Amino acid sequence: MTQPKNFAFGDDEKMLRDTARKFLEDSLPTDKLHQLVAGNPDLYRDPESLWDEDLWQKIIELGWTTVIVPEDDGGMGMSLVALAALIEESGRVGLPSPFMVTANSSLVLRECKTAPASRLLGEIAEGKAVTLATTTKNGSWLAADCDVELSDGMLNGTAWFVQDARKVDSFIVKAKNSSGIALYEVDFDAENMEIIPDAIIDLTRDQAHIKFNNVQVSDEQLLAAAGQGCAALDRAEPGILTLVSADICGAAEWQLQTTVEYTKVREQFDHQLGYFQAVKHPLVNLMIMIDHAKSLTYNAACAYDTEPENAAKFARMAKARASDAAAFASNRSIQFHGGIGFTWECFVHLYTKRQKHNQILYGDASYQRAKLADLLMGPVAA
Questions:
Q1: What residue ranges in the chain does DSSP mark as E strands?
Q2: Partner of 17 at 20 to 30 A CA spacing, among 45, 118, 177, 272?
């Protein structure tokens, strides 16, 4: 099966993107974002989870959480391309919300193909926020790696690096037993479960590790049976990588446009900063990098729906290039703002920190290229 023209980005997707852009620009201008999440510059402050819950409710009312949910489960059943467009716009404004983690969870649930997974997808369509608790202490999110054990209907162990853990209603927890990896839904307020916030640099997100101490689970919470969880996570991974790449592209666009505007108004030696080649040429290079990353991102999103055999390859290409763009955009946006670019009052630090988090999330550029080499040439023999 081949990809459709323009990555299947048609009139519906364009209207969805344009509407989202206008809504987010009106609802969360950058000065409001800074006031919301950057009120305390103390490096040693307790980890915070700062977000506008009223804005999140409006997003639910707009139906964004239903986009990727199948129609049979109460959603719109649209493509990953449509969802990537929304995620890109949320990255452009640095949106603090459980939107991306819920979208990632929806991708996993679609691959579970069980009645409890369909039930949870329906609840997501109605506004429930969900995140993945599937990473180990050493940072591995590979499907077969797990620090949580399942025995006699009880979960014990710790899930690490859980994204936006204090913004959601429930978790998709990866657990192992002698039969393999299973996936369970666990409520935010489950007994014998402790959510411990992590200190991270990204002010627009929160992160935590979650301890399970004899947390009871039932068959109604079983999203993927033991032995089936790995397959569901593996099939969803290309989509998850694609959405992170879309967020990066949106944030990088903000970094580029904001820096360009600054070089038009800031003068040095009787010229606008943008007059000098040492400034204008790197900004052109950044524009090209972003366009490249966006093309790869939408190619990966389209492949996820139309070329599943190529989805992993294209998603790793997108995440690698997007991570490169994130690093370059952050570096240039700070440097070209001059002395003010290094201050807390300058908004560029919000995006630099979000981009640094995005770069590492699910593997940086070097990691993705190593995995891509394995896909194309096979693993290197020991």
A1: 130-133, 148-151, 154-163, 170-177, 180-187, 193-198, 207-216, 222-224, 267-268, 271-272
A2: 118
Question: Is the pLDDT reported for residue 382 higher than 60?
Answer: no
Q: Is residue 382 part of a domain?
A: no
Do the beta carbons of residue 215 and residue 192 sit within 8 Å?
A: yes
Task: Kindly report the backbone phi and psi dihedral angles of residue 205, in degrees, each rounded to the nearest multiple of 5, phi listed first.
Answer: -135, 170
358 class by beta-carbon count within 10 Å (0-12 exposed, 13-18 middle, 19+ buried): buried
- Domain of residue 291: give its range: 230-377
For 111-126, the pLDDT digits (tens) are: 999 999 999 999 999 9
- Residue 350 phi, psi (nearest 5): -60, -45
Amino acid at 144: A
Can you tell me whether residue 84 is helix, strand or coil?
A: helix
- Number of separate domains in the chain: 3
Same domain, 36 and 173: no
Helix/strand/coil for 268: strand
Report the helix count and the strand count for the chain, using DSSP H and E: 11, 10
User: pLDDT value at position 276?
Assistant: 62
